[in-house]
Amino acid sequence: MGEKRIITVLGATGSQGGSVVRAIAADPTGGFVARAVTRNKGKAEELLASGVEVVEADLDDEASLRRAFDGAHGAFVVTNWWEPPTADSVWTSRTERERGQAGNAARAAAATGLRHVIWSTLADTRPYLPDAPRQEADYTVPHADGKAEANAFFLDAGVPTTFVTAPMYYESLFTFNAPRRAEDGTIVLAMPIGSAQVVSGTVEDVGRTVYAIFGRGDTLVGRTVPIASDLCAGEDFAAGIAEALGEPVRYVPVDPAALAHSGMPDSGELANMFQYFINAEKDLTQIDFDWLRDLNPGLQPFSTWASANRDRFRALSL
Q1: In this predicted structure, what is the pLDDT of residue 175?
Q2: If exposure means fewest CB atoms within 10 Å of the residue's CB, which of 52, 169, 186, 275 is most exposed?
Q3: Helical spans, DSSP H, in the chain
Q4: For residue 8, what are the β-bridge partners?
Q5: Whether pLDDT at 1 is above 70
Q6: pTM score, two decimals?
């Protein structure tokens, strides 16, 4: 076997980046090896202990990205809109910062001659939310719309890029969308998605799908790949959790507009995001699952994943 090709993975200590590192490491006989990027090696002790190469770089610093990309075959690029800016940040908003970081990554990738970049983007929600209240920087869903605009940086720089869009994570059912036990003793799953099916999946399927895309070489350059493990409505989520727990779970749809007035941080952003899932359902759910399963045979339907994680659901103290 020849020398392994390096994939530089940004956000290696986060959800998406971490899943990509794990997917590469899980195939020791494959043709790739991960180079994990973090701003602070001290936060990557687990990666270092497992033998993964770890380098320091910062998405706000293009020169550091060039060093991290140097000698690599490809890179997985992900940004985090939700991360609060540092006190010395030059950006006026999180969306401006995210766009700036994507531009830095695109220029660094072009300068170092990367052969394949996978950019974790999202769709522009504005066509589906013409009357929605505007949020940061006059976007409807800033963490999605800014990424969609940033696609142009990779195209304009001539970087061979595959664009991937992440799903709504199953794992949100342990946090934001977690089921609760009502006063009458029943378990209730309240979600602001109405009756819509949403593109859903586990974080681990992001990494495995991204790894498979690198394995396809340049055949998927220029393509947008929606990463999905399943399409689930609220009733489907409730049924999967009920099967895992062995007792009924009742789904209760919540009006996204109510979320906007909940007082939660970024509640307007989240309300618009869920309304987008509802408004864009017909377009978002046009997914060729046969093709995705050929790419990643391990895709996990929600019911299978929920059963495998029954102990985590039980730990919610329902």
Answers
A1: 94
A2: 186
A3: 15-25, 45-49, 62-69, 94-111, 142-156, 203-215, 234-245, 256-260, 267-279, 281-284, 289-295, 302-308, 310-314
A4: 35, 75
A5: no
A6: 0.95
